[in-house]
Amino acid sequence: MERVAFLIDSSGERVDCLLNPETVQVTRLAGVRHRGASGGQLTGSGLADDPLVFTGGGRTELVLDLLFDVDFVEAQVRPADVRVLTRPLWMLAENSTAEHGWLRPPLVRLVWGKTWNVPGVIIAVAERFDAFTGTGSPRRSWLRLKLVRAAETADQAEAGFAEELAAASTPTAAPGSAVIAAGDGAAEPGRSGVRFDLLANDALGSPLRWRLLAEHNRITDPLAVPAGTTLAVPPPAGTRAGGVPGSGSTFAGAVAGMARTVAGAVSAGASFVGASIAGSTGPGNPGPGSTGPGNPGGTP
């Protein structure tokens, strides 16, 4: 199992977490502010809302809740104080890097498997300790960390996403076969508990390709797919849905379209890759104005 880690760009040092987080909260703040003047904020009696100024840019924040416990350390000699394990993360929020004569926190990358690679700066770390020893040393820490994403160009984002897709592992299911949706996640109202990312990893070799699997099976809401549903595995790259080689709507073309869509969304400030991919074209989801199955509103 791959664990969450932070890579320090300047030194290449890797800071590993003891356990993976149960949840990751991603927040996007758009580049919008209230329009003002020298005398203060502009208002008007005939306006339902305050006038806004669109400044561009914005801010993307990731919050991780991490658990550290000395009893979980897989080593012959365990530390007596959990702060020995969490101090490297604290240091990532210290002003330890110099830039243009000013000190600042180091630029890091949040990496987790093949689906998370986020450059940014850690701006806040907070800990809650418990399980104290008789001498007052904490043995367990509940740590919350906030990372603000650093700016990337659209070309960098497209190249990075395409590289992640290309690094897919060998699928366990053969092309043209089928996979069974299993309830690996927690079922709740509106969600069946089916992990579509795990299905995509089995069928296509990468969890990032979940959208291609959904489009191939004409699924608009992967969260609502009932457990036990049989899903067809898309054909390999370079073949059409019927298995005939050709240059039509190919699997590889869909992947390239996904990368372009994500790159455009990142440059516009999108914070979650899944939402960006939703509008991309691919098998079963032809572009506007195209004809055939999957485009009931197209021209006959």
TrEMBL record:
Residues 281-300 have a biased composition (Gly residues). Residues 11-157 form the Contractile injection system tube protein N-terminal domain. It comes from the Bacteria. Residues 279-300 are annotated as: Disordered. It holds the Pfam family CIS_tube. This is Contractile injection system tube protein N-terminal domain-containing protein. It comes from Micromonospora parathelypteridis.
